[in-house]
Structure formats: structure tokens, C-alpha cells
Automatic annotation (TrEMBL):
PROSITE patterns: ABC_TRANSPORTER_2. Keywords: ATP-binding, Nucleotide-binding, Transport. This is Amino acid/amide ABC transporter ATP-binding protein 1, HAAT family. PANTHER family: ABC TRANSPORTER ATP-BINDING PROTEIN, CONSERVED COMPONENT OF ABC TRANSPORTER FOR NATURAL AMINO ACIDS-RELATED. SUPFAM superfamilies: P-loop containing nucleoside triphosphate hydrolases. Residues 4-252 form the ABC transporter domain. GO terms for molecular function: ATP binding; ATP hydrolysis activity. One of its GO terms (cellular component) is plasma membrane. The lineage of its organism: Bacteria, Pseudomonadati, Pseudomonadota, Alphaproteobacteria, Rhodobacterales. The keyword Nucleotide-binding applies. It comes from Thalassovita taeanensis. It comes from the Bacteria.
Amino acid sequence: MSLLEVEDLAIHFGGVKAVDGVSFAVEAGEVFSIIGPNGAGKSTIFNLISRLYKPTRGKIMFDGRDITPLQAHEIAPLGLARTFQNIELFDHSTVLDNLLMGRHTHRSTNWVQDMLFVPAVRRAERAHRRKVEDVIEFLELEAYRDKLIAGLPYGVRKVVEIGRALAVGPKLILLDEPASGLSVEESQEVAYWIEDMRRDMGLTVLMVEHDMSLVTQVSDRVLAVANGQPLAQGSPAEVQSDPRVMAAYLGTEVYT
Ligand SMILES: Nc1ncnc2c1ncn2[C@@H]1O[C@H](COP(=O)(O)OP(=O)(O)OP(=O)(O)O)[C@@H](O)[C@H]1O
């Protein structure tokens, strides 16, 4: 059984078929990337999987469970976390507090217990802090842990965005353009984080990315989409040399 199975997924916004008949499966432990030209439907696929959008058609299975009818807030506790292309952090909170917010999906105590700060609440709080400190150490964010997001360089905020998703403690992490806006050196760092996430944390990674050197370096398999529809699927080399993919990219710099 695959960790994630997407079957005949579609969403239509009025006349726009943003996603139209996309199927793929992500196996536990692999890095799977979705590529495609601007407007191909990649972020929309992420928004459908993370349940921000309701599909017009299709089914999404995660870890053996049909998550298609679930609400967005019910997804993270199952072990599915995501990052956003445009970074969704609280600018006026510290790195530590942003990561702790990522843990709130795991609330096991109720508000009365929280108010009274009973031992169960204190234990849960300690466990959340330990998990967050592990993420800070893993992503080498120690120097920034007490700094406000607003004052951080863009490249560091991108890493904190990954940290917020990791703090959830996911089985599957969805990375939406983790290298966008980064320098070549910073993109290479992202490649190392992804390899470490898989090797050290046993994570499965589903990534949307335009940076083909990053995609080629870290991905086991790639799905190419265009106009909301699947074009080709296979190893990075197979997909890059597929004539339908090359035609979809014609005129762009991706394959030069
Ligand atoms: N909420 C929405 N309402 C209407 N149209 C939408 C909505 N979300 C996405 N679309 C349309 O769906 C299509 C796919 O958009 P999407 O953002 O998924 O593409 P993408 O492959 O992620 O592009 P990029 O690489 O530029 O981020 C586009 O035509 C877009 O305008």
C-alpha cells in the first residue's frame, strides 16, 4: 500500500480546469516531485491534498484512509504537513513560537486542564518543546530561535517554514517550492535538508519545485503536469527527456 494515493483528481473553477484527472502514488520513504510550467496546477494539487480545496472529482488516500471528505484541520494530526510557497509564518512571533504553533495540532488536553496547568498539561508542554528543540537543532536554527520572523533574511524564513511543518511530526511532508527565491547555495542546503529528512527522520517527501537541479538531485520519481493534466511520470531523467514534457516547456529555460 502506498503512503499517498491520488486517484483521478480534478478541480474546476468555473471554466478553468485547474486540475483535471491527475493520478499518482507516493511510496513510504521516497522523494516524489511534481513539476510543470507556471499555472500547470501544481499548487492546486497541494491545496487539494491538504484539503484547502474540495475536489470536483477524485479520491485522496493517505496511510490507508480516505481523506477526501476531511477538513483541512483534520489532516495534520494524521501525519501530513505542508509548507507554503509564500511562507505562512507569524511575522511578529519568534522562531520558537512559530514552531510551537506547529505542535498545536497535537493538543491532547482540554481547556479546563490547560487553565489549571495540571501535570498532564505540563507533560504535554515539555514534550512539545522537546520536539521543537529537536527541529531547531536539526535545521541548525539555534542562532535564530528567539528572533522575530520579521527581521530574518528570506532564506532563513524559508527554512523556518520547513521547520513549522516538521514540528507537526509528519510521516509525509509537502514542500511547495522550497527553493523559490533562494540562491544556488541556499538551494543546495535545501537539497541536504531533504536528504536528511528522508534518511534521519524516515520522512516521505512530496515536493513541487521549478529548480530542476534540486528536483534531479533529490527525487526518486517525478510527475510532470501541464494545463492541469498529467504529462509523464518516472525517474527525473525519464521525465526530462520525455518529448511531451519538453514540448510543454518549450521556450522556457528549464531544460537548457
Ligand atoms: N482559487 C482559484 N480560483 C480560480 N482559479 C484558480 C484558483 N486557484 C488556481 N486557479 C487557476 O488554476 C490554474 C493552476 O494554478 P496553480 O497555482 O495550481 O499553478 P502552478 O502550477 O502552481 O503555478 P506556479 O508554478 O506559477 O505556482 C491557474 O490557471 C490558476 O489561475
